[in-house]
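pasting for the record
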Amino acid sequence: MTRPAGGRTVVAVSGEIDIDTEQTLQRALGLALARSSEGVDLDLAGVGFCDCSGLNVLLRVRRIAVANGKTLAVRSASPGIERLFALTDTSSLFTHACTPVNGVVHHRHEHSATTHGLMTENNGLDDDTEELRIEVAQLKRAMLTRPVIDLARGVLMASFGLSPDDAWSVLVDASQHTNTKLHTLAEELVDSVNGPPLPEHLQQQISTAATELSRPA
């Protein structure tokens, strides 16, 4: 949902932000940014899941905003978004504490000419810092999600006699054909070992994919 608020545009986002939805989000934020004179305020309280793909979108749009003398700020965030910001130390990038002037971010107080020059010279360094934060976010998110995916691969290897690569292919195939997020599918598969069974449509897709891979070429 998008609505004007003075010189800014408020955008409310809900659902999941990941590799499947990042392009849609970036287009929506780009349009909202273009229509505003001061920038965009984000309401992320309704976001249930956000991975490094979503964070990368926010960082890219923020960079565009700053280059155009605007800001991208987060007004409210879900617990998941707050954890992601805390994990990657990026929450300070999405506040109203700084105002961009001629593409350079300044704090809301007077600077000397010397300080202004130093800030301008360090703008490239700020870009490098953002790139590093993106890389760190990706690595940390991978560390959080990789264990359950590896466990799910192990379940498939034991159940169907698959190789590690084939088990990965089955997970990806089942995720795509059932419109289920990969991390969600992996969690449900692992939980099914000692808990409730997988939904029937997931069982069928996994079985079909595993059987096709097991057939002689």
